[in-house]
Model the fold of this input.
Amino acid sequence: MLKSEEHFLEIINDVFPNAHPHMLVGRGDDCAVLACPRKLCLSSDLFLENVHFRLSYFKAEDVGYKALAVNLSDLAAHGARPLGFNLNLVWPSYLDAGFCRCMLEGMAEIAGQFNLALTGGDLSLGNCLGLGITIWGQSPEKYLLRESCLPGDVLFVAGEVGLARCGLMLLEENCRHMNQYPLSLAAHLRPVPLILEGQVLAGQEAVKGCMDVSDGLARDLPRFLSRGTGVEIDPAFAVHPEVAGYCRVMKVDPIVFSLLGGEDYALLGGCAEDDWPMVQSRVSSAWKLGRVVARERVFLDGNRVFLKGFDHFEL
Amino acid sequence: MLKSEEHFLEIINDVFPNAHPHMLVGRGDDCAVLACPRKLCLSSDLFLENVHFRLSYFKAEDVGYKALAVNLSDLAAHGARPLGFNLNLVWPSYLDAGFCRCMLEGMAEIAGQFNLALTGGDLSLGNCLGLGITIWGQSPEKYLLRESCLPGDVLFVAGEVGLARCGLMLLEENCRHMNQYPLSLAAHLRPVPLILEGQVLAGQEAVKGCMDVSDGLARDLPRFLSRGTGVEIDPAFAVHPEVAGYCRVMKVDPIVFSLLGGEDYALLGGCAEDDWPMVQSRVSSAWKLGRVVARERVFLDGNRVFLKGFDHFEL
Done:
């Protein structure tokens, strides 16, 4: 049991150093004072028990890790250099101080990988565990925005799609054969934010835009494309072997499954067709998703693919 | 009923302009890109239904207003110039689109007063209404920190203490005589962040430190004072007339009641005794709380006052 707010702050101060070149004034005052670059990328994400994760299969460390990882992915989509974050934490009475420490250690693990400062936050009791993170980083000179691609451009993806969806389904079903899908489970429990890839993309003049694929391509593609454009999926679309295996067992279309995805935290980008070989050579994990076409919707072999993406309010 | 995430975003975009000198890239991308001063003050606060407010006596507009006001108060305590904020919103299915619009309009009212940009956030379904705000502003050159006062210094307060506690109690009791306490109700429902006062204090060389009194003086005084110091309350401590009236009816000590307070969002500061008249002349709402003494705890007429402050985990 967490005995008091002070007890919680003790654990935070044990796990997260309260000194960092980015913090002129650190935690423990009304505000942190930050040494800032001229342009800051800033984003917020919620990570809520029974909405975004379940404690039946998330270890405390994974909760802390993933809450920060999904926020880092937003910075990755802008090619930003991560600097710091604030944590708003809603704490239920059924979790103890040990859980709190492990959760923060999982968060500190990924914060350490990207040299992120925890600069403050707030704490309250509540019915379920909830984490709200606001994260920021130095913006590159070039902005990687949405709706920048034209018909004929190549759409590419860095990272995997469908793998986290596969992991989620295996975990939700408590599948007996789970251990045959290690990468799927990891993709759901411990997504890797593609910070380096985003920075490399932002450094390429040829790259027209970028976004992080958090709600699945089916839902995120229309957000990335301009009105009146769609995508013809590349015939060589390579489904991840674990996804292919799972879809075979479940008798579902592996490409549709991959496009539905969700929580992929891959990066979706675009460039002119002529620039694609160069872009691919710079970001080895990038693969060609397809080509922008002058008709809305998603097409495969010339036929429209029927897809419905993820919306928290339509579940 | 909010039909979809898009429906929510429509309302947000109706109520909050998506253009501001501070936003180089606005809402609707993975990150906002902000034009930043060299030093940024940044803070986060939670505002949760049934923890921080009840819908039985908070109108939608008041929820939106207060969620942002309490965040602004943290900037006030540093004398910062408000710039922008992000909103993480947890939305329960029992609230409709009309509530959402009114809530955001209440928030936009106070955002407009301080020319704040809403730069982004996140949205999720949940069991209760919850707002998590991260706010930032330009830091003054001088930092108004805690633990800067020495024995002999004057402690002063800008704003009222005890009034919001009085308002909370009247509202919780659903008191029949509520209309006799208009300022108390307003102090609880619509606290006024002392942004201008904070900026004036930060501009005074003589001011040694400042914090916002959010958990009541009883709890916040020890956080403001250095270890080994306490406060002798000024014999002229003037209880607010509404608080005095309420305490008379309730037969409780009005000074203890005021010191317990809670959600006062007053500013607590300190300066050398010689500088006090000058500080007071610059901030007309400032009044003398007492004098720092070289013994921990709070004293009144030479006797220790027994106080227990507010802790979310001790309730």
Summary: Residues 310-315 of chain B have pLDDT under 50 and may be disordered. DSSP finds ten helices and 13 strands in chain B. The first helix of chain B runs from residue 5 to 15. Chain B touches chain A through 65 residues (CB under 8 Å).
